[in-house]
Amino acid sequence: MISEVFEKTVLQNTVLDYIIFLVSFLAGMVIIKILKSVVIKRLKVWSEQSATSIDDFLIKIVESKLVPLLYFGVFYITFKSLSMTEAVKRVVDVTGIILLTFLIIRLIIVIINYLLETYFRKKSLDVTRQHNFRGIITIVKVIIWGAGITFLLDNLGFKISAVIAGLGIGGIAVALAAQTILGDLFSYFVIFFDRPFEVGDFIITGDYMGSIEHIGIKTTRVRSLGGEQLVFSNTDLTNSRIRNYKRMEKRRVLFSVGVVYQTSTEQVKEIPGIIRQVIEQVNDTVFDRAHFSSYGDFSLNFEIVYYVLSSDYNKYMDIQQEINFQIKEEFEQRGIEFAYPTQTLFMEKPWENS
User: Does residue 3 carry a pLDDT above 70?
Assistant: First the structure.
């Protein structure tokens, strides 16, 4: 009696076939549950003792992405043991391809996102760069999903070659029409990854100078010293020579001092030492040299070089002002006069030549 029930056929399969399918499916589910509750749990305990974060990431990937794939894999393998019509087989195969593609796309996105986050975490991104980073992740997701959907449609039997050819021709037309925009977009990626400058940096490019205020996908905005906003295309900046003063560790300062010709030789010899002593007394400076450099039209010229241990322009001007004050005080105490443009006229009396 029982054997007759088992041999009874329903939808091209016996009752025994359905029982075997159900038992196999449940056994697979139980095995996966055991693996998840025992193996993954122990791996989590082990990863908590590890100093790196990559093991936590891998365990999260296995738990959230691979385990659901195993569940479907058990169902797919056991279900394929049954006899099915071509329509049912097609539905199961299509469902499997869609689910597999979906999980693989999500897995790729998660891995790329993790790698980029790890890379930029080491770079200590500021708020602006974190915002730009999220924009890049969005673009990457769109590209991956587009490629994944194209792959899916191709495997489902759709003839996408004509569509791809049409998109290729259309893409060429769009690229020619928007080559400037695309160039600025690629330059944006160059700026983001190569980091020639960042928001807040003071730069000089050509005849323009100012502080970086915003870095966008197409343009970069600079606030000039005069207060107006300068807008550059990203391509212009990547194709230009840029001087970034924010990254200057120290500033080399060259200036000159002129004294009158009536200054005695002894005083002229003392001046380099006086200037050196003045500079060395000022904080955040490193003296380099001071020399009697040349005879000018109306002065004895001294050339001085020192370094300011900061990139701040205002601090440099404060230091230079303090040095100028002290040099003037020292010269006044020693009776040394600064030179200024003068002319001496020699007049000859006519009768003295007769």
Answer: no
Q: Give SS3 for 294.
A: strand
Distance separating alpha carbons of residues 221 and 198, to the nearest angstrom: 11
Ordered by start, the domain boundaries in the chain are 2-125+139-144, 188-244, 251-334
Q: What is the pLDDT of residues 105-136, one digit of tens each?
A: 888 888 777 777 776 666 655 555 556 666 66
Query: Per residue in 72-95, pLDDT tens?
Result: 777 777 776 666 667 767 777 777
Reduced to 3 states, what is the DSSP secondary structure of residue 200? coil
Contact 187, 237 (CB under 8 A): yes
Say if residue 252's pLDDT is above 80.
yes
CATH 2.30.30.60 fits 188-244, yes or no: yes
Tokens of 227: 């207060």
User: Is residue 203 within 8 Å of residue 210, measured between CB atoms?
Assistant: yes
CATH of domain 251-334: 3.30.70.100
User: Which residue, among 259, 222, 258, has the nearest Cα to 242 in the 3D structure?
Assistant: 222
d(CA 286, CA 250): 10
Q: Give all strands of the β-sheet with 251-259 in edge-to-edge order.
A: 251-259, 300-308, 285-295
Cβ proximity of 197 and 203 under 8 Å: yes
Contacts of 256 (CB under 8 A, 6+ apart): 293, 301, 302, 303, 304
113 by DSSP, 3-state: which?
helix
